[in-house]
Amino acid sequence: MDRSLSGRLPGRPLAHPAQRAPGPRPATGEVEPGEGIPVTMPDDQPETPYLELLARGAPAEAYERPVLRARAEGASAARLAALERAKLLALRVRGELEGRRRREAELSALFETAHDLAGLRDLDAVLQAIVQRARSLLGTEVAYLTLNDPQAGDTYMRVTDGSVSARFQQLRLGMGEGLGGLVAQTARPYVTESYFDDERFQHTRTIDSGVKDEGLAAILGVPLMLGSGVIGVLFAADRRPRVFEREQVALLGSFAAHAAVAIDTANLLAETRSALAELEAANEIIRDRSEVIERASEVHDRLTELVLRGGGVHDVAAAVAEVLSGTVEFTEAHTAPAAAVDRSRAGGHAVRHGEDWIAAVSAGGELLGALVLRGHPRLDPVDQRTLERAAMVTSLLLLARRSADEAEQRVRGELLDDLLDAPDREPRLLRERAARLRADLDAPHVVLDAGIDPRGAASGGAPGPAAGPPPEETDEPDRTGRAHRAEGADEAAGRQRLWAAASHLAATRHGLAAARDGGTVLLLPLADGEGADSLARRTACQLGTAVRAAVTVGASAPVSAPAARPGEVASAYAEARRCLEALRVLGRGGQGAAAEDFGFLGLLLGGARDGAGDAARVEGFIARTIGAVVDYDARRGTDLVRTLDAYFASGMSPARTKDELHVHVNTVAQRLERVGRLLGPDWQSPSRALEVQLALRLHRLASAIAR
């Protein structure tokens, strides 16, 4: 039999309080109040004592006293009947007043609950208040609320009031299990006077254990409806059997509706707060992205400005470092971390290397270097893109600079070619062309001929064929051809590197450079106090370091004004070439020298651009070879020069020399010791002795001509 609240409640009918007065029921055969009892009262007013009882709110048993007192006083039957009718009417009024007070209390509780919902701040507090008020107004020992768990497919205990069992407070009810599970499944209220004796519910060991541990007997459950769906159940329960009136069921249903509204409102507030939090997070991300984009835009503008005003690679690095708040450096390809640079080139993106970020600077498959951002282990993707954009701009600047350098090198080479090949060029035009290259052809210059030393190049080249059995005759021509081709390719690459290094050196020294006759020729200005020989040695060192090979450099005597005397440039070039070949013949490859460094050979190597030049070379040779001795004689009035003449004329014999000079042999020894201190300890070596003798004869000849 269906004992849900859609029919009669078990045990007794659900009568409205207005239809049944509290207290003892009238005897059988008596007429119920309202069933034909006249409302008019007799003249002796028997209702007066009952009005006094109603006025002071007396309990129901007090309404029997006026009838008992009248009987004790021997009142007539009519009087007693009137008192009985007045009593029943008074009890009926009393029941109506109690019902009104009860409904007033229920409405007040509902209003308070609605007020709490209007100012909802804490869902737990509102649900706890609903459960407490339901327990208080229904007069039960326990009240509790369960909520559905859609993911688990069951209901769980959310709020309890009056519960003393921890097991009961942690119960979970499957759909259809127990009274609560049935309410949640059917969306209808259910009530039982004694839970364990009611067979309508699906009893489980877990639920029964929890209910028994709490000691509950009578249970009323109403669904929490949200739209057409059930979200939970509100319960009122007693630890003894009892009957719940229909009004109590309706009241608990009202509280359940309020609880559903509270839960729905809390869910909406939670969703609103979550949406606001997400919006705030999104706004924060947008602000961050806006800042990053503004920073990237700033970098783009600054890089564009740098490119337009001719900034360099280090200017780009400084600009990016300022924007990224770090240290950015441009490194050459051979100094950058090879593995990180290879990963950056392969992926086309900046890569992390330890605590740094590296972006390869490349163009057309050629690695030009790398940009290194230091001290930034965590880099925003947009900042990473900024570093990559800076690397791209750097590669463009390097290519532009290379193109400009190559164009300038060609112009410098063309000007030097004109000086060498067209001596009749107009000096004014030569000066104008040189001025555009920041070169001053009216200042003294030196022509230098540079070439990579073949032995030095071979030592750094590829190893020869491995030792082993001789190759087949049919393979020999092919191997020889491959070796010649490889050697030719190496020589061409070396000449190209030498020309590039010489062009760079000429640009930095405000000179000229050109590739010529399988080597490189330079026209460099001569600094104050500097000689052609020292310039040749310094140039050989600089070019050798640049190309990483031994470079031999021959230098000419200074050309006073190449623009005014373009014809002398070609003669100076011939002199520089002779010096270069002399260095190679003498086994001095990888060095730099001018004609004056070759002793008496310099007289043969030096060109005859004019007579004054020849005389100057002779005087220079004498000064370099025995000038210290000549000067000493001039200052001290000694005869060291005459002693040297006699010494060499006597076959370098001190004994014969003393006879020639008519002095003691010790005097000869002292003079020769003095000569050794002036000329150096090796002055008697064969090569030095030959130069000293030649210088003595040239000095004697020059002195005779001067006289």
UniProtKB/TrEMBL annotation:
Highest taxon of the lineage: Bacteria
Organism: Streptomyces cuspidosporus
Family: Belongs to the CdaR family.
Secretion signal span: none
Region span, Disordered: 1-47, 451-494
Keyword terms of this UniProt record: Coiled coil
Designated name of the protein: Helix-turn-helix domain-containing protein
PANTHER family: CARBOHYDRATE DIACID REGULATOR (PTHR33744), DNA-BINDING TRANSCRIPTIONAL ACTIVATOR ADER (PTHR33744:SF1)
Record InterPro entries: CdaR-like_regulators, CdaR_GGDEF, GAF, GAF-like_dom_sf, PucR_C-HTH_dom, PucR_C-HTH_sf
Coiled coil: 269-296
Annotated Basic and acidic residues bias: 477-494
Any Pfam family matching the protein: GGDEF_2
Residue span, GAF domain: 122-273
